[in-house]
Specification:
Elements (H helix, E strand, L loop, with lengths): L20 H22 L1 H9 L21 H6 L13 E7 L7 E6 H17 L7 E4 L7 H13 L2 E3 L6 H10 L4 E4 L1 H13 L11 E5 L5 H11 L2 E8 L4 E7 L6 E3 L4 E6 L12 E8 L10 E10 L11 E2 L4 E2 L4 E3 L2 E3 L1 H9 L4 E12 L2 E10 L1 H5 L2 H19 L4 E5 L14 E3 L4
Parallel strand pairs: 3-4, 3-5, 5-6, 6-7, 17-20, 18-19
Antiparallel strand pairs: 1-2, 7-8, 8-9, 9-13, 10-11, 11-12, 12-13, 12-14, 15-16, 17-18
The chain binds 5'-O-[hydroxy(phenylacetyl)phosphoryl]adenosine.
The site of 5'-O-[hydroxy(phenylacetyl)phosphoryl]adenosine has 22 residues, from helix 5, strand 7, strand 8 and strand 12.
Length: 441
């Protein structure tokens, strides 16, 4: 079967993507005023921070006034764990998701019915933006569960009228069988997992280029233009970038259109700013900095000026597709030490916390990230006390297993654990080098 050209007829759900700018800006202002009021009236942390600056919701008279409000950060979610930032009573909250915190505890995010509708709407518009529509068969290989990827893409695809295969992540052979046998036309997963599928397809005797698959909706981790070129050349599909984060909604904060020149932010629901991550001041137009997002339609957990730590730049110039929504440049790095492996966010501090749980392990460790056949591997090297090292092989193996379990129960991923003698890991004179990332993009 030959690959169908992508549909360039716009889906009716995409109408807000094309709002004339004056209309979009006034909608944003109305929504901003409402969300600031909601956060101020219902969330202690926002109220206290605004009071400390002698600000009230009435001080937001124009979009520029947003810059006067205080930032919110990941640590705020940790400090108010689990439900301290909720602006709705539990009876109105219909869904919880969670994502990695900076230490052992996850961060929890909440949705009302209305929030789920907004999320479904932006995900539907995301899929429509890359030319998907009714009749498409979408293999959703994002993980279902606390991670927002699976259910986010699922609801959006159903609302679009596409056929969803909720296969979730993993089980590569089954993924390839389903892709071939069910006539899948689009896939949602992390870009690295798709590379793995490409690698394995040859061994499984499947030629993806000959399948009807024509689009991939790839995100949840950084990837590069060269990775896009490789994916497209080796599979014959179009690879699109989707961006999002749990704290704001999940996937569907921004999505590339068929021009593939940066992801359009769904600005009617998420207001972007770019700041210098050291000073907190806005950067000049088009300059690189940290993306800060404000939710304009969130009920259960409004976020005002949330510092994403993702480094990008805003492109204000009009895209050829005609969307009035600004675009973000591809996110290549973060302002903190979080890394993403197999779509899971991990902070070195989580691994450190897991190590410190185990007697005999020392807080000297290094994390090695590698990629083989498109699949990420995580190795943790950790020093152990001289007593343990002098002990029997059995005792050492037992300790290795304990460390392994502790890491797995903290980050939800299995790591390769290597126990090493004290003072093996190179000490740094400045900041310890915790992560060595040898993955090639
Ligand atoms: O990764 C939501 C998502 C699911 C996005 C599926 C796209 C597709 P979190 O687990 O909270 O949420 O992780 C959010 O992942 O702050 C970025 O650092 C990174 N990230 C997400 N999408 C991209 C992307 C989901 N397209 C964190 N490019 C974010 C680069 C991305 N980094």
């Amino acid at each position: 079967m030959s690959k169908q050209p992508s549909n360039t007829v716009f889906h009716p759900a995409s109408a807000p993507d094309f709002l004339p700018l004056p209309q979009l800006r006034s909608l944003q202002l109305r929504r901003l005023q409402a969300v600031v009021r909601r956060a101020y009236e219902r969330v202690e942390l926002f109220r206290q921070r605004m009071d400390a600056r002698a600000l009230t919701p009435d001080d937001v008279q124009c979009l520029e006034d947003l810059a006067r409000l205080p930032f919110a950060e990941k640590t705020d979610l940790r400090d108010t764990y689990p439900f301290g930032l909720f602006a709705s009573p539990m009876k109105d909250i219909v869904r919880l998701h969670a994502s990695s915190g900076t230490t052992g505890k996850p961060i929890v995010v909440a949705y009302t019915q209305e929030d789920l509708q907004v999320w479904t709407n932006v995900m539907m518009r995301s899929l429509a933006a890359c030319g998907l529509h009714e009749g498409d068969i979408i293999q959703n290989a994002y993980g279902y569960g606390l991670f927002t990827g699976g259910l986010g893409a699922h609801y959006g695809a159903e609302a679009l009228g596409a056929t969803v295969i909720p296969i979730s992540g993993g089980n590569t052979q089954r993924q390839l069988m389903v892709m071939k046998d069910f006539g899948v036309t689009a896939i949602c997963c992390t870009p690295s997992y798709f590379l793995h599928l490409i690698d394995q397809s040859q061994e499984c005797g499947v030629d993806i280029r000959k399948l009807p698959l024509r689009a991939g909706v790839f995100g949840a981790e950084p990837w590069t233009e060269s990775m896009r070129r490789r994916i497209e050349a080796e599979s014959g599909i179009k690879a699109y970038d989707i961006y999002g984060l749990s704290e704001i909604v999940g996937p569907g904060v921004a999505m590339e259109c068929q021009c593939q020149t940066g992801a359009h932010i769904f600005e009617d629901y998420f207001y972007p700013e770019i700041i210098d991550s050291k000073t907190g001041q806005p950067v000049a137009d088009g300059e690189e900095g940290e993306l800060v997002l404000t939710t304009l339609g969130k009920q259960a957990m409004p976020m005002i000026r949330y510092r994403t730590r993702d480094i990008t730049a805003l492109k204000a110039e009009r895209c050829e597709c005609g969307r009035t929504l600004r675009r973000i440049r591809r996110i290549g790095r973060r302002a903190d030490d979080m890394f993403i492996i197999r779509g899971i966010n991990v902070y070195p501090s989580q691994i450190e916390a897991a190590l410190l749980e185990v007697d005999g392990a020392l807080p000297h460790y290094q994390i090695l990230l590698t990629r083989e056949k498109g699949l990420d591997d995580l190795e943790v090297q950790v020093e152990v006390t001289p007593e343990v090292f002098g002990d029997t092989v059995g005792a050492l193996e037992q300790l290795r297993q304990k460390v392994n379990q502790s890491i797995e129960s903290t980050i939800g991923l299995r790591a390769k654990v290597r126990l090493v003698q004290p003072r093996t890991i190179k000490r740094s004179e400045g900041k310890a080098v915790r992560v060595i990332d040898q993955r090639k993009m």
